[in-house]
Design goal:
6-stranded parallel sheet; alpha/beta; 51% helix; TIM Barrel; globular; 233 residues; 2 domains; binds nickel (II) ion; 10 helices
Length: 233
């Protein structure tokens, strides 16, 4: 949040200059395309820009539903981001390994889903560290990202914890609906280029909806990326 505000402020100052640069860049690209067309290149004029989206799953791994999700994603060649609860990772280590093997991004969601702003800072640091250590022991890689439970985060945590917080721009409310069609409808109505979608891989309805959402968005020309590729850093 802090970063986004800073970035906007910086953009405001240089808005005029930025505008000129963008116009110049666009102008250059257009004429480049024209030239390609003139010499019979196969560049398609007005080809839609690439649309990217990141699916993120919190609170797992779940022994049944996460396994189903991983199988479905593997069939579709799609990479997502998992924010793991340490206690669940401890119980389902082979699934954590599978996530890493499949190229998904793994982040930290606290050991027991604590609200980070409502507990002692020191104990929250321990919860995060314990979870990161466990993920590193299983996968060989230390997480770089944290999804704070409930999105609860503050300046003290920002300073104390050396992980980048990742929030979301589309909330599927899957935990509330527990209804595949409703989850799917809500996400597909809201989603746009660059969105980070929040879901939970601890419900069968969420996993079914997620795979249907993937199929629809692939049809709509979206590319799935991991959340690190979409956050403003
Ligand atoms: Ni959560």
């Amino acid at each position: 949040m802090k970063m986004a505000k800073k970035l906007l402020a910086a953009c405001g100052v240089d808005a005029v200059l930025l505008g000129i640069l963008i116009c110049t860049a666009l102008g250059g690209r257009e004429s480049g395309k024209d030239r390609e067309a003139d010499i019979g290149g196969d560049a398609v004029r007005g080809e839609s820009e690439e649309k990217t989206v990141a699916l993120t799953f919190d609170d797992g791994p779940h022994p049944v539903y996460t396994k189903e999700l991983l199988e479905g994603l593997r069939k579709r060649g799609v990479k997502v981001t998992f924010f793991l609860m340490g206690a669940n990772a401890q119980e389902n280590q082979e699934l954590v390994q599978e996530m890493a093997d499949d190229g998904h991004l793994i982040g930290n969601h606290g050991y027991r889903h604590e609200d980070m702003t409502k507990n002692q800072l020191e104990s929250m640091c321990e919860s995060i560290e314990k979870t990161s250590r466990l993920i590193q022991e299983i996968t060989g890689n230390e997480p770089e990202y944290v999804r704070p439970p409930y999105g609860s985060w503050n300046e003290d945590l920002e300073e104390a914890i050396d992980l980048t917080p990742v929030f979301w721009s589309v909330d599927s409310l899957d935990w509330k609906y527990e209804d595949t069609d409703q989850i799917k409808r809500r996400v597909l109505e809201k989603v746009k280029n660059g969105d980070i979608i929040l879901m939970h891989d601890i419900f069968s309805t969420s996993v079914d909806a997620a795979l249907e959402i993937v199929d629809t968005l692939l049809d709509r020309g979206y590319t799935f990326v991991t959340a690190d590729e979409l956050i403003v850093d």
